[in-house]
Design a protein that fits this description.
This protein is of the alpha/beta class. The protein is 35% helix and 20% strand. It has two domains: 347 residues, 3-Layer(aba) Sandwich (Rossmann fold); 126 residues, no CATH class. The strands form four sheets. Strands 3, 4, 5, 6, 9, 10, 11, 12, 15 and 16 form a ten-stranded mixed sheet that branches. Strands 1-2 form a two-stranded antiparallel sheet. A hairpin with a 2-residue loop joins strand 1 and strand 2. This is Carboxypeptidase C (Cathepsin A).
């Protein structure tokens, strides 16, 4: 038996795992089951359809198959006004289980109120906050994630594994899905998390230009940089608000700052970042010593670090160093994707943590849950391995213009709105960089009335905490309702 080693990424985190030969899934198959869930105290009947749908080459040959789960409210006869949400996770080699059984789906993983795993692993429960009351949802697993696989082993992997290749084949797949399910009239939404935000930002324009499919909304959960450049001083400065939020959570700030509410503190830190820190970093060695000392003193106060540490690093505190340094004196590290999580390293010295405490926690709760749920509740029986993470490398990163693509899609489509959802304690795709995306996508300020930002007191997986699960779903529900267009309203400026 041949075992191969692969390296894949969640956002920018590399994970090495082994894989062995597995049977191929069927190219085209579905299994449907009937269920009911109480959402906001209203019983919602729905059909859950799980299966596979092919990707064809130019000759009509099935070269790959995409695994999906589709939740459709079953007491709605006329689907023409019924919103359809198409949901992706990131990686780019991650399956969509995180959003499906963690966030918007009708059944979710049982966790404690802060999002930590509890035993027995894999227990599921109804999600009383799911958006299924207002929209049908399909969760899509790109090639090599979930049960999705390349079927023709001679197919060039470049057809799938790259920023623009990924967008192109998924747009064609969405066209087929919408056609098969008779949903062309439905208002349509894309939602993506982490690298999924890169994916859906590109899909917004690709669907318009290649499939002639126009959207009402795009939701970016914990967005990446979307190909928008932020090098040098900008890259360094934009980290500070995240540092401040994390230090506040761990009670590492000076007493006068610590006693303030986070939502009161962060605007002050953001203003300092833009108006003082960024210009100071830009000036570099030309900055007067008195000014350098004053900037370092304020930056240290907001970041929970010492002034000496700030100056030793010339204001350039890397996130890796911050995760190691903030609680070094307590013998603890903090998590990358969610800095509420704590880890313990072999030694306190060093420049970065030994491991990602938060991802370890999530994997040993989500993995048993999705495997049990699919087999026992959705009745989908297969020997194909469910890839929580799958090999999608080498991934072609060239020509990532997805942020610009999303802006162009908005320009061409007056109906299209964008909402960003970010966790204040996310150190991989931090909330202030997410705001920066919105500013740079719309430098002239022409689309601000169609862009919105929502922040939560959590990390990358904004829905892990019980209060944020409710709030984030409520924000999604409101976004969908507010972006539906009354009959007869023209799409024009």
């Amino acid at each position: 038996m041949v075992i191969k080693l692969y390296t894949i990424a969640l956002g920018f985190l590399c994970i090495t795992f082994s894989s062995k030969a597995q049977p191929d899934p069927p190219a085209d198959s579905v299994i449907a089951t009937k269920h009911t869930v109480a959402i906001n105290n209203v019983n919602i009947p729905y059909t859950a359809t799980i299966g596979t749908q092919p990707i064809w080459d130019e000759d009509g040959k099935a070269i790959a198959t995409i695994n999906f789960t589709f939740y459709e409210r079953s007491d709605i006869k006329n689907k023409s006004n019924r919103p359809l949400v198409i949901s992706f996770n990131g990686g780019p080699g991650s399956a969509s289980l995180w959003m499906e059984i963690g966030y918007t789906g009708p059944r979710i993983l049982t966790l404690d109120d802060e999002g930590y795993p509890v035993q027995p692993y894999g227990e599921m429960k109804d999600n009383p906050h799911s958006i299924l009351d207002v929209a049908d949802i399909v969760y899509v697993n790109p090639v090599n994630t979930g049960y999705s696989r390349i079927l023709d082993k001679k197919t060039d992997k470049n057809v799938f594994f790259g920023v623009n290749a990924d967008i192109k084949y998924l747009a064609a797949w969405i066209n087929t899905f919408v056609t098969r399910n008779n949903r062309w009239q439905s208002p349509k939404y894309l939602i993506g998390e982490s690298y999924g935000t890169t994916r859906v930002s590109g899909l917004a324009l690709e669907l318009q230009e290649s499939q002639w499919m126009y959207l009402n909304g795009v939701v970016l959960v914990s967005p990446t940089d979307l190909g928008l450049k932020r090098e040098g001083p900008v890259d360094v400065a934009l980290r500070l608000p995240y540092f401040a939020a994390t230090a506040w959570y761990h009670k590492a700030l000076p007493a006068d700052l610590q006693q303030r509410d986070l939502n009161d503190l962060l605007p002050e830190v953001e203003a300092f970042t833009i108006k003082e820190l960024l210009p100071a970093i830009t000036r570099g060695g030309n900055l007067e010593q008195d000014s350098k000392t004053a900037i370092a003193r304020n930056m240290a106060r907001y970041a929970g670090l010492t002034e000496k540490t700030i100056l030793q690093n010339n204001f350039n505190i890397s996130t890796w160093f911050f995760w190691k340094e903030l609680l070094r004196d307590k013998g603890l590290t903090i998590g990358r994707l969610d800095s509420r999580y704590l880890g313990k390293d072999k030694q306190d010295a060093g420049e970065k943590p030994d491991y990602n405490a938060e991802l370890t926690s999530w994997l040993h709760s989500f993995t048993p849950a999705i495997n049990y749920y699919i087999r026992n509740e959705l009745n989908y029986k297969t020997d194909v391995k469910y890839n929580v993470f799958g090999s999608v490398f080498p991934w072609d990163q060239k020509d990532n213009n997805t942020g610009e693509n999303l802006q162009q899609a908005m320009a061409q489509n007056p109906y299209l709105h964008v909402m960003v959802q970010s966790g204040y304690y996310d150190g991989a795709c931090d909330y202030f960089n997410a705001k920066y995306n919105l500013w740079q996508m719309d430098p002239a300020g022409k689309f601000q009335n169609r862009m919105s930002f929502k922040g939560y007191r959590t990390g990358h997986m904004i829905y892990m905490r019980k209060p944020d699960l409710k709030e984030a779903n409520d924000d999604l529900r409101t976004f969908i309702k507010n972006t539906l267009v009354e009959k007869g309203v023209p799409a024009k400026y």
